[in-house]
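My main concern about presentation is that the manuscript never shows what a single data entry looks like. The format is easy to grasp once an entry is in front of the reader. For illustration, here is how one protein appears when written out as sequence plus structure tokens:
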Amino acid sequence: MKLIESFLIAIKSLFANKLRSSLTMLGVIIGVGAVISLMAMGRGAQAMITSTLEELGSNVLFVVPRSPEVTGFVGLSPVFTTPSLTLNDARALEHIRSVVTIAPVNENFIEVTAGGESTTTIVHGATPEYQPAYNFLLASGQFISLRNVASRDTVVVLGSDVAKELFGSANPVGQKVKMKGERFTVIGVLAPKGGAIFGMSLDNLVVTPITTFQARLFTRRTPSGEDAVQSIAVKVADTTAMDDMRAEIETILRKRHRIRADEKNDFAVVSQEQVLGIFSQVTGVFTIFLGAIASISLLVGGIGIMNIMLVSVTERTREIGVRKAVGAKRRDILFQFLLEAAMLSLTGGGVGITGGWLVSAMVSRLDISGFTLKAVVSPDIVVLAVSVSVMIGLISGMYPALRAARLNPIDALRYG
């Protein structure tokens, strides 16, 4: 009965000052909404990267350059490490038993222009094996051929978003585009693939022969003077032999690079699971970081609740005196003000959940240059946001509640 009575008194008190209560809850609403929407976007990015990498399959190993003094794996295309891989390294791996596809790749950002239109995208220097290795399909035209690679032809295959950006609905096959002052002929258009890694849509790219990339676009050489390759994807037939395959790749490359037994590798062989784990770690930290930033709003909301509850205690000093005079105990007064603080934060949290969900839904509908992020609002995010908001409300209301509970009834009755 006391609980129901305290609840009714709390509602009456909050409704007596609607504007003040609403403004107090605003901080909590913004905080909870920000936590949910930002963490949902982080989870969405994590889910997108995971699904994109899983599309490649679990039977892919990536070979990337790595400085011998570095421990661990730092990325699929480590631009800032000393280049150590070459096309001849990739060709040497083709003779390994159970290898299905070997796809050496170079990449960089580039501006592509056609007529009066231009767009900034990623250019991949690749071989014909790139298409099956990364599971791309053609919408029109043809893919790069061995002849294109051997002749260093200035040809290019456009991603679906780039084709749409530069040529609209027209078929770009046979048309010319310009990259770094060089004119390239469009020989094909990739079918839409979807997915993205770190905000870069897999449909927002162009592919050119790797030899053309090395000679005409971005020249980078190994210490021995050969044209460098940034990564080599090795697709194998038998996933149960991945460890044996890794060991065989290391043996071949160590021999080719003349690495002594007491020296570390100048390359790394990474499995799909390791890549996925690294990306998951990065996106997980990113999600937590976004949540931490958004939690600042909750802290500000908690300070607002404490401020208002202190004002409420001052305004209701005489009421507290009357309640104590008729038998109310300290714990009753303490519970009353804690309940009001909790109701403020809980109501604000409820509205914030709705707001955060709406913001996440709006973000999921945005299409920025062909890139769409599907924000994922999971139950644990909602529970976390609401739990934190209620906890902040109770903590913020504790001091004003204790202050109210400790009031001397005689002094309280004399107040005002």
Confidence is low (pLDDT under 50) at residues 70-79. Residues 272-315 form the longest helix (44 residues). The radius of gyration is 31 Å. The chain is about 55% helix and 20% strand.
